[in-house]
Amino acid sequence: METGNKAKRCGWADGDALAAAFHDTVYGRIVTDEKRIFERLCMVIFGSARYSKNVIKNIDALRLCFFDFDIYRCAELPEDYLTELYKTMGRARAKVFGVRENARACIRVIADFESLFRFVYSFKNPSRTLAAMRKYGFSEVGPETVKKLMESIGILDGHEPGCFLESNNIKRNAKNARFSDTYGRRERRLCRA
Question: What is the count of structural domains for the chain?
Fold first, then answer.
């Protein structure tokens, strides 16, 4: 899809303003906050290993249902609450209950690595990340889910070739950019990021 300035986006953000905004401002950016990393994992799982427009559209409802993806609160969600949620939401039971299991796995990771950020960013290879996640008891994760998580939080470049946010395009644009004297060194560095 083309933005107002004729730059192309990834195909999954095509034709939907909310998906386009998510793509342009959230997807593929480095995430350090543990709640947001956990949220992205849940989003990828709910979207069946891709960013579905339906999940993006319902992220506020998911945040409400799962207490803004507070890892410690999600780890303590009672059985009856989760059962009611999956019936109400129309989502697969395993995915809804997986939020609690994955929150508990995150707590184990945090105990060993001091932060979820340190854990996920210590891997560059999705298969190694998956093996480590399974060791900690994460559920509803597979090779594609882990790859999409890593793309979502900026570990891997998940933007399609030709997308204005694809790393090759960003590097090329930064290299060819002309800055006026009004930009200082700091601003130039920010523009290249």
Answer: 1
